[in-house]
């Protein structure tokens, strides 16, 4: 048995339950059924959300303007660069 969710872009996260749980992300429901459908023996039960997720987070988490984002390729000031500044575990 598994449980999961379908995102607004159609991708699906699926979590297998049991003694050895695992999580997988799929591009769509059809892809899951192609692999785990057991020739039509698999049943999907949808639990409908009481509200549409359309603008659910717009008023709660405003998006910062792009000018306030830092460059991910540049280290923060004072951060050591390269392997010399990295810590190695042995």
Brief sketch in words of this structure:
The chain has 1 helix and 3 strands, in the order βββα. The chain has 90 residues and is mainly β. β1 and β2 form a beta hairpin.
Structure, explained:
With 90 residues, this protein is mainly β. It has one helix spanning 29-36, and strands at 2-6, 12-16, 22-26. It contains 1 helix and 3 strands. It has a 3-stranded antiparallel sheet, with helices on one face. Strand 2 and strand 3 form a beta hairpin. The model has no long low-confidence stretch (mean pLDDT 76). Residues 48-90 are annotated as: Disordered.
Strand order of the largest sheet: 1-2-3
The beta-strand count equals 3
Which class best fits the helix and strand makeup? mainly beta
Mean pLDDT: 76
Low-confidence stretches: none
Topology:
Elements: E1 2-6, E2 12-16, E3 22-26, H1 29-36
Features:
extended; mainly beta; 90 residues; 9% helix
